[in-house]
Each structure stands twice: as structure tokens, then as C-alpha cells.
């Protein structure tokens, strides 16, 4: 117990003292996760809205697949990206393996289905309310997408926060494609695994506390956005 108490105190000292190693790991984690969520959102928001508005053969299968991919195991996503980016893979010539770029790609694959599936649900519900009005105004389906996405912006902010939470807490995929290289691809989750195995509990605990605070802030933000949306509807 004393060792654990000392490790906890040292972890707090690392956080409060702005330890360079800890700050660097946290900064890279935020950079990778935020980049992944932004890229995924640029693809997933219009994709989810399009699925909500258009009816076509096989639409049900696409929706089922998208929902299934929300639970895609991170190690599977990491393996797929690894095979794509390895020297023998189709994208090996770009040299992205074991770089932050590879980690962003892996997280995009994990986050995109979540944002797209939840966007489809929200836009489909919203379109059901405004369909007659939009039709009477002669608004075409492509033009309805930005309108509905803007009107659903509060709910979609919660969706984005959910995607960020998924990305920031992920370890398997980024470990496979990033390699956990010190100062290059080491993020909070992979560093916690490594430092714990090395017996460096203060740094592992410090990173764990920062990650917990980050997750708590994301959930608090999602709750506040949800409350704001409910007050608007009320």
C-alpha cells in the first residue's frame, strides 16, 4: 500500500508539474483523436444524412452493416490498416505505417460507423417531421442534407463527442499500426500499457488520471448538449 500511495503522489506531481513526457503523450493523443474525429465527421455526416433521405435496393443491408461496424473490434481495424500500409500492402509505398497518420486512419475506421449510423437515425427522425414542409417548398433531397444537418447540430455534437470518446480510449488498433514508439506514436492508452508492464506506475497512473478526466469532460459536455437540445424542443 505505501508503494501505491507513493506512486499516486508522484503521479499527481507529474501532472501538476507539467512533466514533459506526460504532456507530450497527452498532446499527441489529442492530436490523433481530434484529427480522426474531424476526418470521420466530414465523411460520415453527409453519408448518414444521405442514407436517411434516399431509398434504394440494398439500403437495409447497408444500414445493418453500418450498425454492425459500430462494434468493430479495434484489433481487427488495426490489422486491416496494418495490411494496407505494410510494405507488401497496396499503400505501403507511402510509408505511413508506424506514424501518427496510420493511427489516425485506424481511428477513422472505428469512429466513422458510429457517427454515420447515429447521424442517419437523427436525420431520419428530423426529416419525418419536416418532409411535407420541405416538399412544399420544392427543396430537393441534396439540398435538404445541409439544412437537416444544421437543424440537428446539437444532437450531432453529442454524436461527435461519442466518436471522440471512442477514439481517445482506443488502444488495440493504434498499438498495431503505431508501434508505440517513444516520442513518435506513443499515446495515452498505449503508454499506460507499456509503463505498467515496465513497473513505472507514477507515469501510468498520471496518464490514467488525465484520461479519466478527459472522458469525464467529454461525457459532461455530451450531457450539457443533450440538456440544451431538450430545452430547445421543450
UniProtKB/TrEMBL annotation:
<feature type="transmembrane region" description="Helical">
    <location>
        <begin position="22"/>
        <end position="54"/>
    </location>
</feature>
<feature type="transmembrane region" description="Helical">
    <location>
        <begin position="61"/>
        <end position="85"/>
    </location>
</feature>
<keyword id="KW-1133">Transmembrane helix</keyword>
<keyword id="KW-0812">Transmembrane</keyword>
<dbReference type="GO" id="GO:0005886">
    <property type="term" value="C:plasma membrane"/>
</dbReference>
<dbReference type="InterPro" id="IPR049783">
    <property type="entry name" value="ABC_perm_TupB-like"/>
</dbReference>
<dbReference type="InterPro" id="IPR035906">
    <property type="entry name" value="MetI-like_sf"/>
</dbReference>
<dbReference type="InterPro" id="IPR000515">
    <property type="entry name" value="MetI-like"/>
</dbReference>
<feature type="transmembrane region" description="Helical">
    <location>
        <begin position="201"/>
        <end position="225"/>
    </location>
</feature>
<feature type="transmembrane region" description="Helical">
    <location>
        <begin position="97"/>
        <end position="118"/>
    </location>
</feature>
<feature type="domain" description="ABC transmembrane type-1">
    <location>
        <begin position="26"/>
        <end position="222"/>
    </location>
</feature>
<protein>
    <submittedName>
        <fullName>Sulfate transport system permease protein CysW</fullName>
    </submittedName>
</protein>
<dbReference type="GO" id="GO:0055085">
    <property type="term" value="P:transmembrane transport"/>
</dbReference>
<keyword id="KW-0472">Membrane</keyword>
Amino acid at each position: 500500500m505505501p508503494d501505491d500511495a507513493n506512486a499516486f503522489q508522484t503521479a499527481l506531481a507529474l501532472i501538476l508539474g507539467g512533466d514533459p513526457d506526460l504532456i507530450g503523450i497527452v498532446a499527441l493523443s489529442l492530436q490523433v483523436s481530434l484529427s480522426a474525429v474531424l476526418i470521420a465527421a466530414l465523411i460520415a455526416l453527409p453519408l448518414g444524412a444521405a442514407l436517411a433521405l434516399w431509398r434504394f435496393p440494398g439500403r437495409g443491408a447497408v444500414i445493418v452493416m453500418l450498425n454492425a461496424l459500430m462494434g468493430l473490434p479495434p484489433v481487427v481495424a488495426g490489422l486491416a490498416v496494418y495490411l494496407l500500409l505494410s510494405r507488401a500492402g497496396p499503400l505501403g509505398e507511402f510509408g505511413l505505417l508506424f506514424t501518427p497518420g496510420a493511427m489516425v486512419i485506424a481511428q477513422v475506421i472505428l469512429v466513422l460507423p458510429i457517427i454515420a449510423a447515429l447521424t442517419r437515425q437523427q436525420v431520419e427522425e428530423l426529416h419525418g417531421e419536416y418532409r411535407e414542409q420541405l416538399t412544399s417548398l420544392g427543396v430537393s433531397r441534396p439540398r435538404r442534407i445541409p439544412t437537416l444537418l444544421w437543424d440537428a447540430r446539437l444532437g450531432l455534437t453529442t454524436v461527435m463527442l461519442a466518436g471522440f470518446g471512442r477514439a481517445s480510449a482506443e488502444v488495440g488498433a493504434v498499438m498495431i499500426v503505431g508501434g508505440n514508439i517513444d516520442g513518435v506514436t506513443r499515446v495515452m492508452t498505449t503508454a499506460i500499457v507499456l509503463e505498467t508492464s515496465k513497473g513505472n506506475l507514477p507515469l501510468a497512473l498520471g496518464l490514467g488520471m488525465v484520461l479519466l478526466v478527459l472522458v469525464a469532460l467529454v461525457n459532461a459536455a455530451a450531457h450539457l448538449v443533450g440538456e440544451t437540445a431538450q430545452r430547445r424542443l421543450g
